[in-house]
Amino acid sequence: MSSAVLMAPVQNPLEALVRELWSHRPKPVLLGGGLAIPAATALSAVLVFQHRKVIFVDGANRFNPYNVARYARRIGCHPKDILDAKNFLLARAFTCHQLIVLLEERVRKHLDDGPAILVVSGPLNTFMDESVPWKEIRALFRRLKKSLFQISETSSLLLAQHSVDGSRERHRLMRGLSSAAETMAIIEASDRGPQVKIVKPERKVIRAGEELALITAQGEA
Prior knowledge:
alpha/beta; Rossmann fold; 8-stranded mixed sheet; 9 helices; disordered N terminus; disordered C terminus
């Protein structure tokens, strides 16, 4: 991809995807595929740049401020305008228990203070911890879905989940997570650049080089 496409400051390529995901009302969106987390990070930068409040919960432990800085420059703003913005809040969860408490308590408090978009990166990553019994995982996952459902009733919600290692039964949690989303998009790398396929509610392909030109190499967060 050329730098001319990446640096285009006037018509932000990601704004079209933002409009596609959140047209007129809050709704839960799930991004899957190898570029799900880089896409969620780039979208967060765009939203903060648009003066929207973003709460970014990192459950994948892949949030990289240097990548956010690159996204910021490519949309024509200083990295500090994103990373130090009062309307950008970052929280990390290293266990599934931490994630649940974070969503049920701290995130809810911030959402009660005013409208915001919640971005959860790798919501299932911590659920792959085999040291936590399956029975406990199922109970925590029910709490996760309940919390996300309650949040999505009043706030826009973006979940980004890449593939993770884990037992077959734990991988079934992805099905439960996708059922909670109103819109689901798969974002993968291709020879022509990143490509998005919206698979829920209807199949639609967003061609590479258009709406996702700001998403860089596969694997970045």
